[in-house]
Write a structure and sequence with these properties.
The chain is built from 5 helices and 26 strands. The chain is mainly β. It is globular.
Amino acid sequence: MRTLSNALITAQQNTLAKPYNHLVMFLDSGIDTDEPLDLTETGILCDADATTAIPVGSIISIANDSGYGNELMKVTGTGTTLTVTRGALGSTAAVHATNKDICISTDYSSKLLFIERIEEMYRDQATTILRNNDRAFDYISMEGRMVRIAYGHTTNNAVVEPDGDNSTNEYSYTPELWVKSQMINSVEGESVCQIYCEGCWYRMRETKFKAYGTAPYYQWIFENTHTIYELLEMLIEDVMGWTLNPLATSDGIVDVFKPWFRTNAEQPENVAEVVWRLISMTKSYIRVRANHIFDIIYPQNADSANETFYSYQVPYFKEYIEKVNALVPNTINVLCNKTTPDSDPNWQTDVDTIIVGTATDASQVAKYGEVLDIYIEGKITNQTDADLFASAILTRIMSDTIAGQLIIPHDAGMELYDKVSIVDSRGFQ
């Protein structure tokens, strides 16, 4: 029997045919806000009577300038003024402008035939097929609308929101998606609607980073003034309007190291590019959750497995493939402390004292011999930061030394960067 207990999930694909799952979409109710809303108001003045369009019990979202709203609200009273519970289903209260669409949550779970949901490190997407025998989707425009997919089952227990519907359904929401295309497919004896959706990472790719700096280049330089966490917080919360949770565990870099950091140096960058450049300076990863909430995750070898799968008992795995690679390079040098101007590519070695940050994996060097890679980061000016930067680079490379593929029955509890343990007795019988 063999146990592998150091596998980190960096991508997952959930494919479910006719699943017991939950899908809601936020569609325009035809009612708009008739006043701005602060963080605490519970009465929403409408531009028309909402009694029919937005009944009591509805979940609503108010559109913003990007076309979607992050906050969910539960309607407890309707009419020309809606009475609502703010920050429903685990979302966070936000300010809202006047003359904005009020979108209502529409449950299409009963029409759900198929879901393929793919979550990767910096992208997320889904294809969903819905029954359309009543031809209702022929007349519903879904492009750009927010979609919430939840995995779960009918448990016959009264599970309270947001983990259920206060009745018999228990489910867990996945990160939000937006409809990018809608297709009606009519075949003999059947009509279906297929929607293709993309998530928060694609949304960030579509958003150019121009919140700071001035036109036409929108360049902004942070001269060792903010930690990486603080810069990520600015991007996720100030630029995108989402939420970055407080740091649970520090890797010693993300909330300590203050980089010299320039945006849009050569051409306009999108927000996802800037986020990726920042998190790549650390040993951590970013995970998105439902309600546009982001976590910074620092996986460590000593972490316990989130779940164990077995070849011979529940929970089973169907197939596991494991590949182990040599660590190449296994030594990193970072050359730092350039004092000449950026416009001058030369280092004044007779004036500058070059600082060398170093990180190495002695066990891999012993196996294969030293393979050195050199990075140049002239704006780092002290030994501590130079060593931290080298360590972060080597940690990223080390994460690629083990690769694999795990096929299991659908497990709603698994998330990116969870750690799994595999216990395999096959071949030992």
